[in-house]
Design goal:
Six copies of one chain form a homohexamer.
Chain A: E1 2-3, E2 7-18, E3 22-30, E4 33-40, H1 41-46, E5 54-59, E6 65-68
Antiparallel strand pairs in A: 2-3, 2-5, 3-4
């Protein structure tokens, strides 16, 4: 499946913290550069994610804000 | 200001494409790793963004999906 | 690519309205049931969407609200 | 109340899975076509949702991505 | 219609800036307290919004970030 | 840090309800005007939020819907 989301950053699962409904998953997308995701626990299971898995962090462009110092 | 968004990826503005209301801004957050953002044109102006500026791509964790091949 | 978004509704493109940065795309996902999407114009082009194309409307569960009458 | 969200799909609650803060609610919006929502548990209670209730799945157009196979 | 979004701030339309696809609408929700919204131009038209209209700014709780100084 | 999100409403933390992964935080942004946020529990901890803290509710304009009665 090819998706309209402009951002798909390839990485490796560093940690998975499951809750009752959601799970927090951290992906390392470049050395030292981590992205944190909250998805449903059901989705994390469906994707077969475990620590060390390859995965993409996918973000719709309209959900990316910008900031400056 | 310190924000709750878990993801703030530091990078450099590569391009800015303005529309009537929104602008598309591309940030390079690691060599060859780009993140695309849609923000209001007013925000892009307020932040003083130009090509070459330093900026952070900020994403709330609940807006990050995961995908596997 | 298999994505964590819980919702992927298959349908047919009914209309595409391009703006400077974004495009509005309407998908019919069941007879008489339409879903409207705003994606970047670049994404609409990348996906090769035209009226009559098959496409999926993909929505992260945390972006679905519920309402009652 | 009339809302700007372009998408309001009428359906029937199929399941409700409560967590500590959020609840996952599945709505059938057409025969065999389900939409999954994560809302706060407080909202699910406020709306009086139970399995079998009529409800609308409401999605802002900017939160709908598109995908093709 | 009663919606699951936890936040519905009542206010008055201060300005409407239309683009090709989207419109930017500013609502004053308390004296001197403004909220800016981007909705589709079609939605702004459907709701009959004009400067001076009463309107609610509706935000899903999962789309509210927090920040501290 | 200066962020592109158009909405940053200053207020006071009224309540914090922690779950396994997320926390629900209510901010009073004007007398009697509350905004509810769902952020990760880790973020709530990182920001040092407690009842009575000053905090900003930050919302990207594309995540604000409008409604009329």
């Amino acid at each position: 499946m090819k998706i309209s989301a402009r951002n798909a950053l390839k990485g490796t699962v560093k940690s998975i913290t499951p809750g009752a409904v959601n799970a927090e998953v951290v992906i390392e997308v470049a050395p030292g550069l981590e992205v944190t995701s909250i998805i449903t626990k059901a989705s994390a299971d469906n994707l077969g994610l475990v620590v060390g898995s390859e995965a993409y962090a996918v973000v719709k462009a309209s959900n990316v804000m910008l900031a400056v110092e």
